[in-house]
Amino acid sequence: MQTAPAIRILLDSPAAHYQPGDSLSGRFFIEGTQMRTVRAAELSVVWYTAGKGEEDFAVHHFERHIDDSARPLDLRVPRRFTTKLPPSPLSYDGEVVKVCWCVRLRLFFPQIQDTVAEIPFRLGSVAAGAQVAADEPEQLE
Amino acid sequence: MVIQSPPSRFDNPFATCWTKPGALPFSFAAGENAEELLANLAAQNWRGAIIGPHGSGKSTLLETLKPLLADAGRNVLAIALRDRQRRLPRPFLDSIRALKWRSNDLLVIDGFEQLGWPQRLFLAYRSRQKRTGLLVTAHRPIRLPTLVRLNPPQSLVTRLVADLCTEVSTPVTLDDISDSYACHGSDVREIFFDLYDRHERKRHAVRTRQF
Longest Cα pair distance anywhere in chain A, in angstroms? Predict the structure, then answer.
């Protein structure tokens, strides 16, 4: 039985911190020397909210790579992706809600379940909730 | 300068994405399982109620049962009522009207007692008359056979928290869980909300010290 492969997504900017309008680029691949048959690979750049309440989600960039006889999908060879980031929503690390961005890769295998890997990144420079609190001057009673 | 990792759903194991019905599989008490519940439901002509207080796992159990009901040949027509919905929404009513009321049809209504009595009566009467299944959740026993009563003990909550924290670590302690259970009882949804807040407060307290 096949096991889930080690998927790697690498951003060209190791800091994973971007500003609106920046170009986000990187590459993805499967580690190892043995060829793994992959029916399709879907790469998306998405934002979502995480917290205690309702969730929101949107896809900013999507690309699908399909395995066919003319062009086999050999993911041992890194594939590049690039997209221009939008003005909003900016990343936010709040206590009640977080706005999160990530690059997500879903691989469809012939015999095992789909496998998903993701790597988060930051868009913009909105201070985290704790940082805002620390920066505020102390209130006098 | 402190470099922070980007925000992500993996920052808090008690976020909705990990705890909502369907995301976290229902955890059965010792000696119970989904197959046994399904057998009991079938023995009651597919009519039954899942009873339990707020946040005790009724919706989560329904989400766990739905695929098994489909596997058992039931044609499931399901709806979840929220925020004191007194009436079934129009699209669902239209679906019911289009229903052939066959014996393998099964109406699944989460939050049945929120409906006004005319619609409850209509559904109960019509489904019995046509021998169609009716599976509902409610806070108190109603005029349907009680399939299961949920009242999660603290040991179950502790187990659920351990399951949630297999991939994401948390500064929340066993004392926090005990304290939260003492405040919220078997309302697991409220306990998860509370633990979400405790996790955030402790995490942000560490960060604030770093700044």
Answer: 74
